[in-house]
Fold each of these.
Amino acid sequence: MKVSFFETVRYRAPQALPSEWPVPSGIYDRDAGARAYEDMIQRLEYVEELGFDWVSVSEHHYSPRILTPSPIVSAAFIAARLKRIKIALLGPIVPQSNPVRVAEELAMLDNMAQGRLVAGLLRGTSNESLTYDLNPAEARERTDEGMELILKAWTEPQPFGWQGRHFKYRTISIWPRPLQQPHPPTFALGTSRESCEFAARHHLGCGVSYGSFDSVGRATKYYREQCAQYGWQPTADHIVYRANMLLADTDEEAQDQFKKLPTQAPFSMRPAVREAMTAVDARNIAGEARPPITIGALPTAFVGGPDTVVEQVRRCKEVVGAGVLDLSLHPPGSRDVEPLMRSLELFGKKVLPRIREI
Amino acid sequence: MQAGQGVPLVHFHGAGGLRLTPAHELLSSRFRVVAFEMPGFGDSPENKRTQTMPELASTMGWAINKLGIDTFNLMGTSFGGKTALWLALQSPQNVHALVLEAPAAIRQPGAASPAGTPEEIARLLYAHPERLGSIPPPDPAVRAKTQPLVQRLRGPDRDADLEARLQELPTPTLVLFGTLDRVIAPAMGRVYKDLLPSCHLVFVYDAGHAIGTDRPEAFAEVVADFLERREAFVISRTETVIHP
């Protein structure tokens, strides 16, 4: 099993913050913000020392919860400061990006990071449709087309034009091309039928997140079936599973902390907006409709002391088939960093060495 | 068949014969579209006379001339793309610009002409045949009649003689491939770019081999823009003002 640390940047706000998204930017504390990025590098140096394979970053806007609106900037900053660990950009929100620009920036980053880039392409969470006025009804189609264009821009040797549905370019010929060939290891992120099919058709990895082993396992099973349809068999390294883990010294302690976890949705929209969004933002797991996650906290898939968690990882491998765990070890957005560092140390020393062979 | 007014746009069909698509209609609002049925296809008698693609091209050049058309834009689909290339090589002074829709002049090793049941053929030609409604299935008698001609004229996957000549062809050329082409690998597009002195390659997203049927609006827009502005079609004229 390979492990990835999901870095969200810990903004230690001097005062309590409103929970509703978007969070007013006028209350941003500059000192806390500047410190957050330096602390991130210190934390990641430790993550690298503990032997994590990847550090992952994501794209979220208008909130201090995950302070990386441009994951490409985060990844470039991390790549310059850390020397060994792979940088997993999971990933640019494709439907609200210029896909050619994404292809250029990721290629640049792969060269600058000496081939340490891992890429994940995705549609984004519901609230992010509001960020740059993206019509949620078009998000799925724009994602598929944008992903296809990114792959083409990375691999096509001659200048070409793109006559799409949502994107149109007469001239594309990116420099630099990626260092890793034909392109960095790339994952289509999401449990949907469309995402799994896209990954299978283009021989990409599949990234799933947060659901229970059984629910994300349905998506990875569907992905493997689709790969077989396209005549290839993915390995465990083709499947990455992002999940919350609550690790403590003992099971009792972990259960005790589990009860105290925040219960609100990660990017909580106003009720009227949330309801309207639910009506237009269609989501599915391997073709079976599911509501967008707009109410309630994200599930925590791993809870316990080291022995219990090692067993849960074993079961996860059986059910989900993931060869890479992308872990959030403490609720993002929490102003309290010490519990994160304790979990990190405990994971690195008591769990990581024991799950390598799983 | 003809429709529209303006600069003539001559079209040569693919190996399946002449089939009008919504793209023909869209293009006929800007050009005088002349879609030929080449000898031996459709209801015409079996063509045992034409032995090579250059011969077919010169016959078609003669037919165009008989219509009183001197200079024209030329569009070829798949098999007809190769005919169009040969005609442009024979009479470069008569062809303003060339459009090749999923051309079959340069093919990946072992590329086969679409064959099988009507459903299998549809699956090869179109990205999403299920979305198209009823497409008339190919007539087996017509197929039996045209197949010997197609097999005789399609030539090798890589035609060294043709490829050598393409390097001298000055005609501005637009090569289009659907991203879901299951007959000719879209990667063949780059070979035209390598060979032709003035070539633009455009991928039409989510289209199969029959681009004009799968995405007629997208196909007609880029074709018309290229024919009107040639190489300057790379300069965008899209307006982005939302409110004045």
Note: The CA atoms of residues 64 and 70 of chain B lie 8 Å apart.
Amino acid sequence: MIVVNYLAAGALFCIGLYVVLTRRNLIKLVMGLSVMEASTYVLLISMAYRRGSTAPVFVSPPAGRSVTSLTHGGVADPVLQNFCLTAIVIGVAATAVFLSVVVRIAQHYRSIDADDVRGMRG
Amino acid sequence: MTDELADTEPRHRPGLGWALAAAVGALFAIGLVNLPREAAPLSAVAHQALTVAQPHWHTTEPVNEVVYGTRGFDTFGETFLLLAAVVSVVVLARRREPRYGYIGEEVEGSRERRGVAQGSRSDSGERAARAAEGGEQETYDAARPDTPDHEPLGVVRHETAHAMTVVTRNAAKTAAPILAVAGIYLCAWGYTPGGGFPAGAVLLGVVLLLYAGFGYPAISRAVRPGVVEVIELAGAVLIIAAEVLGLVFKGAVSENWLPLAPLQTIRAGGVAQVFSASELIEVGTGLIIAVFTILGMRHDWAGDDA
């Protein structure tokens, strides 16, 4: 029933989206975006799962398996695990940029409420 | 939760937020239930990675083969996306004047200025002003709120790590070298899925552990822009060299051009190991720069209105 994981990932995304849509605290907006990012990790790792499979590692295979049999399948999808790694690194980088912008906004406006950040010059 | 700490922030148009989130959720649900399930066969690229990992790369970790071999060029691009993000953070957080380290120079500078002023002049008016300033400072410190959540924005504080107990400091001192060796060992022998990426995150964890336990002065000689930025760019140059030499020697970017050592030895992955070690440098220093730049920003509040 891996579809439950898929739906959990979708629900996690929607929780993050709700936070982004309804909150004005910039830190909470960044947290909402991070929750949305985290939902992609759940989805990718869940999609990598295969019934009865083991980790894609060719050292010390479980009882009844050999390294040769693992190379022909019976392991979780290594490509989707790689996508998850990529998503984590990009997520960290994006969050770092968002937080820098939030700190600069806080310094400039002395507020982290998005409603206060409306002043335009020029 | 007390009333003081209760979340009083208003939600804006919660009904509309729920409706939009529910609509997106419904669309996702339709798509997600039709995704391949746990009984689906592996994709062709996954089979390719499993097949070539041992004979072609001498690695026992197919995820590493995907990261640094089959999808090596994607990883190359992703690495420079990370570098672009780090550069963005540094540019956004730029100071008005060059600094030696990331944290604490404003506090030290103000102490020094007070010391210089004290040495230059010492009449009765000056002493009275200093006494008043000192009294004001004590009142200010005594008036600190009960919880850090109630600290006003922009208040400069001393490093709280100076107040860490001996238990915390010893725990940090014991755990840091073990974690550092474990992270680098797993990366060096190619036993981590992703190699340098998780090992770089471990490196950041070690530095943050030392920072939390001992404060910035304990790590300031190593963790400063003049050191970590140079190391990060050296990691980027290594990655470019490893990839471009594949094109020069073998006619394809990400192709292995190094002799392969036996399985489960440090040089088993050939150029994948070089790429992985370079990623360790790149990701570790990149994350350190991003985190400490953001931590340092809170100490640099003055002057925006000038």
Note: Chain A touches chain B through 60 residues (CB under 8 Å).
